[in-house]
UniProtKB/TrEMBL annotation:
Biased composition (Basic and acidic residues): 45-82, 317-326
Region ranges (Disordered): 36-87, 302-333
Coiled-coil residues: 254-283
Record-given protein name: Eukaryotic mitochondrial regulator protein-domain-containing protein
Keyword Coiled coil applies: yes
Keywords (A to Z) from UniProt: Coiled coil
GO cellular component, one term: mitochondrial small ribosomal subunit
Domain of life the protein comes from: Eukaryota
Amino acid sequence: MFSWLNGPGRVFREPLPGSTNYLGAYDRSGNLRRLMRDGEEEEQEGKVDLSKLSAEEKAKYNQEKEAKAAEDRNKLPKENAADLRPYPLNNDFRSQSVLSEELRTEIYKKIVDEKVDLATVSALYGVDMRRVAAVVRLKTVENNWVAEGKKLATPYHDAILQMVPQTHFNRKLLEDPKKVFSHESINDLPVHPYTRTQIFYPTSESRQFTRADAAKVFSPTLLPADERIPLSELIDIEKDAVNNMPREQRTARIRERTEKKMRAKAEKELKKQEWEARNVKVVSNQRWNFRFESISVEEAGKDGRGRRGVGWRYGNPHHDREKGEIKLPTSVE
């Protein structure tokens, strides 16, 4: 243990400034791998034959080389995938980036101060909508604690951020239309329970079978994949870009779609409030508010599995694995 602490482990006594400090970033001798790679590349690019230089030129060259080495030590290159391995024997695990403090503050300002909706902020910064909502909730709690005079664990927070890779806020990158500001994948399609069953659906080879047709096969009420993704408006934006639509026209269409979506959302919330005012009765107690709502037994459906039925439970099994169930089609319509 002491031989490792005095040898390769000596580099872990103090963390690298502005960088992660994982075991996978060093070799067995304690040398930082990315510094060695950059040094070898620069040595091959700027190799000088010292035998052809005079004594003054040699001294000047060595002085410049030492100054550049000192500058490189203060300015480390960015980590690559190999440097983000906390466990050297596990090549498949990479430490994922977290949101930096300035990016979290910018997201909070967009939502709370500028009243921008979650979907727009998610598409703008490349952050999942669930993470955007979590950032807003946590920043609200933090601001409330600061207003109440509670002490925050700021040293612990800063120390943890120095140990993990971060996604920093870059305003110039947002203003560049050719580049995309992204922290994570934001448009992943969740697996719908209706699509987990085995279905053998016969169709003609000459027919164009689309995603909308596939959704109708699973369930008449299931929407196609293009409409079930979290940010379906990104498809329209990409189509406008592929069709070489001018930037001003694309911006106007984005604004028009956003305003239409906000109006529809406000109307839906208003209808929900009006319906609750007519059908929901609230009885207040000293500790609780009891909500009473009229329920019809017909809402459970013919098979008793209706989503709005009273006593509905999760985990209803599928019948596709039971004996006697015929899965292969017996006729073609």
